[in-house]
Amino acid sequence: MGEILIRGAEVVVTMDGTRRELKGADLLLRDGQIAAVGPGLESTGEVVEAKGCVVTPGLVNTHHHLYQTLTRAVPGGQDALLFGWLQTLYPIWAKMGPEEIRVSAQVGLAELALTGCTTSSDHLYMYPNGARLEDTIHAAAELGLRFHPTRGAMSIGESDGGLPPDSLVEREDAILNDCIRVVDAFHDAGEGSMCRVGIAPCSPFSVSRELMRDAALLARDKGVMLHTHLAENDEDISYSLEQFGCRPGQYAEDLGWTGEDVWHAHCVKLDAGEIDLFARTKTGVAHCPCSNCRLGSGIAPVRQMRDAGVKVALGVDGSASNDAGSLIGEARMAMLLQRVQNGADAMAAREALEIATLGGAQVLGRPDCGVLAPGKRADVAIWDVSGLEAAGAWDPVAALVLCGTPKVKHLFVEGRQVVRDGQVVTIDLPRVIETQNRLAAKLMG
Hints:
By secondary structure, the chain is of the alpha/beta class. Helices cover 37% and strands 20% of the residues.
């Protein structure tokens, strides 16, 4: 792969153990790893000038539903709460197939790349008309992002008292068999892996207790991570109390859904006992602030979680509930909401940036990512802070979060350039967008 020298950055934000910020420093990438960080580095390879730029680890997105980029701003779901929103969109999603899943994944991942993201998970829990998890895996490989797809599932349809139409649910034995298939075919547990597969029943209200337990057993047998939605809003808590006789945290613990190999999306309504449970068991949380605002779910207790020692990361969530996919935008929103809830000193810009980078890597179990240090993977975001968005900023690092939602100038994943001068260079993005709009029009028709 050769060498790439990123030269003369205004600041390199390392996110290392002492959170060093190196002014006027260089970064040397070699064979997919970071070879050196510091001033005055030399290389015979390609040189990327970073004057006027802040260099950070690539951002890590820990919760998404990429297929939903095809259903942004759907009129019937624009002002609905979670359950009503789902009931509006399920019949539309049931019309999708392999092409829709693949193209929407390309669009969603490209949007993430342009906002500094180098690693993304995805929660695909429906497989209509022959769609398969590898439709997203191939899309991520083509674009060049590090990918943590999760094999989601729904098994309780309308005829059994569930929310989704029966056409979108699967038999539970078929679900588990396909989990085995995709893990065996695509999961790479090695350092520097570009694809790690997780197991992810959609939510406690869309699958049975037995499937939740069996999924946890299977994941431990295969050595892969577990993911689901949990404690997203008041309806979610009420459902858990009525159907299971306990709060979501207790339900998760009873079925094996706590531990350092588990991360839950949202957790807006965790109480103090559940926060303590997650801290003790090293269970991770994917905080999705924009989606939580969009659906009126509330403000997750991120300050309390982090103070207790819970691993917290960021997620953009699905584009049908956001309706955007800017990970740096999520960092800003996370910071602002914690200030609304807890005061102006509740979260600094640098802490929000840490959650978006190192925090995401920790939640996904990636000690090889999230830090700019020798031996770590060469996942690097380069942000131009010399232009309009940060004009007049006294602190260029804080400006990334405080001064709006910038896009990256350059982005490298595993040492491969994915964004150059603000443009995705690994796929023909205009053609993909044209296809996406054609597919969306077909769904509307």
